[in-house]
Predict the structure.
Amino acid sequence: MKTDKEIQLDVLDELRWDPSVNAADIGVTVKDGVVTLEGTVDSYAEKSSAEKAVKRLPSVKGLAMELEVKLPGSSERTDSDIARAAETALKWDIAVPHDEIRAIAEKGFLTLEGEVNWQFQKSAAERAVEHLTGVKGVWNKITIKPKVVAAEVKDKIDAALKRNAILDAQQIKVQVDGSKVTLSGSVRTWDEFDEAAYAAWNAPGVSELTNLLTVAR
């Protein structure tokens, strides 16, 4: 088990290693295995990359993101420009049913609204716009249409977890209530935490996921 100081050094090394992150303006504190990132970044995409970098570390028990996006002058855009750019980006992404999604820009923050059939479409819409110049944050309010019965959802998720070579499916419990899924149990790393959630979201008809998995150290 690593000390908070050792975890802090690991996080700093991981941030410096990631070419999409400028670690010089990011402060890292750790208490009881929970990491807090503070400071400023130049884009929402960089903030997202910093979050993913920390989650790659198995010793991290939790993460608080207190990074602020401060755009350089050359990256400032009007809300109208951002909304138009988002509409174009959604149209160009083959995984996004763009006719079902609306992008609203306010003070540099994008809100995505609409309804889709699959979680991967909701995630694809967010990925399509998070790297646009001028975007300070993305709020994904897209909903998913339930399409199958609960028993079918549970069977599909259980099967997906067992197929995944990274996961120990025996340590993961799946509960389904309508189109809402709850995962409980334990995993070994944050990568496994995300992988289990990804497997659950890929089941057709899942509209809500509560991930109660704990990361065993």
